[in-house]
Amino acid sequence: LDASIAAWDAKRTYDQARPASVIPVMFRGQTIRAWGGPGRGTQLIPGDTWVPWQRPANKSPPFPDFVSGHSTFSAAMASTMAAIRGSDLCTLTGTEPAGSFRTDPGLPLQDVNFTWHSLSAAADAAGFSRRVTGIHWIRSDLAGRTLGKQVGGVVAQRCARLYAGYSS
After folding, report:
1. What separation in angstroms does the CA of 140 have from each of 14, 41, 65, 128?
2. pTM for the full predicted model
3. What angle do CA 151, 156, 159 make, to 5 degrees?
4. Which residues have CB under 8 Å from 147's CB, separation 6+?
């Protein structure tokens, strides 16, 4: 909840437009290489038709870009858990099965396996995913990660004080 409050405070303060609002205007009248839509992959498209890599029914969120909530929440969780556990190190794995993308039916062509060797690496991947799909700008991801780590540090300190009080 603290990460949510911090992220939304930044969103209300900075009110930055998302890529979905800026790129079509910025590249109007130009040809760009981008995702062409479901089943079309990357191709040359008119810049003013650019959309984030997501299902057409999903629209880019209708609230400010800066900071990325996903980056903030993920970094806060990772830093809090690492502090409580005494280590950031762990192995997390996941698989995206072949044909499971709702954005591009039939993709991926084969299973995609993910492995992260720390909580922070998994959190960074969550933030990066919002950038690579065109939902957030790089600065929104990176600033969200920084903010999340700060929030996580405060939450971990609070947890430590609470745990110390219960053990006395």
Report:
1. 11, 26, 7, 10
2. 0.90
3. 130
4. 3, 6, 7, 10, 67, 71, 72, 75
